[in-house]
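Input sequence (354 aa), recorded before submission:
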Amino acid sequence: MKRIGVLTSGGDAPGMNAAIRAVVRTALDMDMSVVGFKRGYNGMLMRSPDQRDDFEILTASSVSNRIHRGGTFLMTARCLDFLNVENQKQAIRNLKTIGVEGLVCIGGDGTYKGAEALNKLGFPTVGVPGTIDNDLAYTDYTIGFDTALNTACECINRIRETSDSHERASLITVMGRNCGDIALHTALSCGAELYMVPEIPWSIEEVAERVKWGVMRGKRSMILVFAEGAMSSLTTNLPELCAQHPQLSDIDVDEIDSHQIARIIQVLSGHETRSTVLGYLQRGGSPSAKDRILGTQLGAHAVELLHKDVSGVAVGVRGMNVIEVPFADVQKGPHAADCGIAELVDVMAVMTRA
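Predicted structure, token format:
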């Protein structure tokens, strides 16, 4: 190959710039040029009035002073039009017109589906895992997860101080979609008393009971880490529970959110409970050293594979090794929680157990 492309798609993740930098400089070292496509797959459709809004030739200096910056300088977006096969074929024609022979796609599961579709149509692609959620089953870690975890920890450290001052429990919602990795790792590293994640069934009654035990044993504050997808594993019959407590009669169980969950916990436990949603704070900021290293390793490996005419795979890490697996295998089986970490959180939170 003489020229390859690179894009970032879906949600941004700290460390994406490190991966782009590695793609560019590794390709240049192998005498290949690189085209950077903007706003994910949208750039490859080349619909902008000015082509500079769709793509640009990336040089060694283009990626200077980037490794420490969060987000992605190529910008990112979702592209629903790319679900259409005719648009995929048009993108391939566009790529060939400007001499691009292979593509590195940095993102999560949706990004990989687009890359796999192109590969099935005969255009070589390699995926690089860039998502804070850490929800790709084939790899131990994704680019951005470590930074998001550190950001969540820093925020919770601050919230704990004010919770301790006011002697209240704090329900902290962290990102992760249908994956509880950020929540579990944050709970363990912040000394949280409880966690609620999509992979492990939980009930509001049990959470409230454990808050009661914490208060009885003298805890001034408690941290309850709530994954944004945790409602999917809730076992409580909410309509029945709210009907039993007049204070909860105005709660709309069809539109339940973490603020209402905190309110229910407060009513059941008798202990003040406040809710905080960390939101997009977790996506921003300078990437951690681990994410810079991971982005560099995986970006470079993706280029090496294309140079060897290997495609249709996603790169990742298992243990200390860089690996690659076929796109079809990146999400085999449901995502499982790390039971070892979950058990450790429970052991450390002995003061809230009966």
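Checked by second reader. The longest helix spans residues 145-166.
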